Amino acid sequence: MRRSLAILFLFASLGATGLARADEDDCTVPMAQWQPREAVQRIAAEQGVTVRRIKIDDGCYQINGRDASGRKVEIKVNPQTLEVIDIEYDD
């Protein structure tokens, strides 16, 4: 019985940690404090990214496009500071 409780506790703690990690790259900025999409477009262009689409994902701006070498790229940006949170390349 003790072993079952220990295993159950272990899985419960791992599950809670997994949920907390999933929210690390979410944005919680009120929309009144967001920069306009044009600013996001300008930042992407300055970095050599050709923007195909800008959408909202997990409360953040998400840029879908291609980098200067033609690779598909997905960039998650904080809508208030325009700080890059995550970059994913599709090879």
Characterise this structure.
The chain is α+β, with helices and mostly antiparallel strands and 91 residues long. The protein contains two helices and four strands; from the N terminus they run H-H-E-E-E-E. The chain has helices at residues 2-22, 37-46; strands spanning 50-57, 60-66, 72-77, 84-90. Strands 1-2-3-4 form a four-stranded antiparallel beta sheet, with helices on one face. The chain is globular. It starts with a helix and ends with a strand. The model is unreliable at 3-11 and 13-22 (pLDDT under 50).
Keywords:
91 residues, alpha+beta, 31% strand, disordered N terminus
End-to-end Cα distance:
49 Å
Strand-pairing-aware structural class = alpha+beta
Q: Helix and strand succession?
A: HHEEEE
Return Rg in Å: 18 Å
Q: State mean pLDDT (0 to 100 scale).
A: 82
Number of β-strand runs = 4
Roughly what fraction of the amino acids lie in strands?
Answer: 25-35%
Envelope shape: globular
Q: What is the helix content?
A: 25-40%
Strand order of the biggest β-sheet: 1-2-3-4
Helix segment count? 2
Q: Please mark out the parts with pLDDT under 50 across 5 or more consecutive residues, or reply none.
A: 3-11, 13-22
The largest sheet, given as strand count, sense and whether it forms a barrel, is: 4 strands, antiparallel
Please provide a brief summary of the model.
This protein has about 90 residues and is an alpha+beta fold. The protein has helices at about 1-20, 35-45, and strands at about 50-55, 60-65, 70-75, 85-90. It starts with a helix and ends with a strand.
List the helices and strands and how they pair.
Layout: H1 2-22, H2 37-46, E1 50-57, E2 60-66, E3 72-77, E4 84-90
Antiparallel strand pairs: 1-2, 2-3, 3-4
